[in-house]
Design goal:
Oligomer: homodimer
Distance between the termini of chain A: 31 Å
Number of strands of chain A: 15
CATH architecture of chain A: Roll
Largest sheet of chain A: 7 strands, antiparallel
CATH superfamily of chain A: Electron Transport, Fmn-binding Protein, Chain A
Number of domains of chain A: 1
């Protein structure tokens, strides 16, 4: 069957990994949100990009403190990711309400999520405004992983690590079969 | 078990969807590459970001013509994606060598991939240079899908659409189980 033109939408670019983003500063203000519009940008130096709506509380905190963590999560955190993605942290202690435990930072002053599979500490380097969003490009200052799920050469062992990915709305998925391109 | 700090790496941000990117212009020069550092940026207007190494032939073509297509692919294209991601198109007809068929553009002058599940036509709007990469932010001008795999409300039906995702090197995956957050 052939193609059908549809109303332009981001949905054909999903599923993609969904992360918990922690912003703010230990001992001052902190927030968490869910985001799947996050990706690596360059390796030399290692930087990532993240799209944050300019009316989000996380935007205020990143503007104030310039740092955040990207927390890679698995299927066990689906309910917490859903809550992080559907309630605002403005004027409340969202991290406590959701019931997330925090892990102290190594190189910044913003914590990670203890239940995550990886914590990536980031510091804003540059940004571009596009529509309702500020696209941050950030330096990666540290990366921590739960080593039982991860191999430094190959990355996640998807037979063990059920990396959570977002489809749309309440629908998520995890990696399926491992497919390996055979050597010629 | 707790966290272990590792050498900073993009690998914890994979698996993520891998796309075929077609650049150039019909009747002039064309190329294809594989890319997984692609994401939506904003909805109003709909824009996407893509990281392109500045020594890639695709970079030359995007600089010259300012347009490209993002082609969403499934598991059946794994070998072609691998070849698109590991050979340069400079000085050769890479699209023909790989054996990809093209689909005429609707709103630009750069074709899509006929075997893809979706073709997204894009026009560069802005860019940021980071290390070895130019991060393009591009307007989405048209989106086409194979309708038997796609629902305009929910996006891909992952029971049918084996969206190809890249882990590292020769390792890929596809979506696994559908997980739905239950209503409270």
């Amino acid at each position: 069957m052939g193609f059908k033109e549809i109303e332009p939408s981001y949905k054909p670019l999903h599923p993609r990994p969904v992360y918990l983003i922690v912003s703010g500063r230990m001992g001052e203000r902190l927030n968490v949100m869910a985001a799947s519009w996050v990706m690596p940008v360059s390796e030399e130096p290692l930087r990532i990009a993240i799209a944050v709506e300019r009316d989000a509380y996380t935007f205020d905190l990143i503007e104030e403190y310039g740092e955040f963590t990207v927390n890679v999560v698995d299927h066990r955190l689906i309910e917490k990711v859903w809550r992080a993605g559907t309630m605002s942290g403005r004027g409340r202690d969202k991290i406590r309400e959701i019931g997330l435990e925090l892990e102290d930072p190594l190189k910044t002053r913003v914590p990670g999520v203890r239940e995550a599979l990886a914590i990536i500490e980031c510091k804003v380097w540059s940004h571009v405004d596009s529509g309702e969003v500020r696209l941050y490009v950030a330096d990666v200052l540290s990366v921590r992983v739960k080593p039982e799920y991860y191999n430094e050469r190959y990355g996640w062992d998807i037979r063990k690590a059920n990396i959570l990915m977002h489809l749309t709305g309440r629908a998520f998925t995890v990696p399926g079969k491992l497919l390996v391109v055979r050597r010629q």
